[in-house]
Amino acid sequence: MKIAIINGPNLNLLGSREPDLYGSTTFEAYLEELRKAFPELELSYFQSNVEGELVNHIQQAGAAADGIVLNAAAYTHTSVAIGDAVKAVKAPVVEVHISNLATREPFRHVSHVSAGAKGVIFGFGLSGYALALQSFLQD
Ligand code: DQA
Question: Concatenated DSSP letters for 13-36?
Answer without folding.
Answer: GTTTSSHHHH-S--HHHHHHHHHH
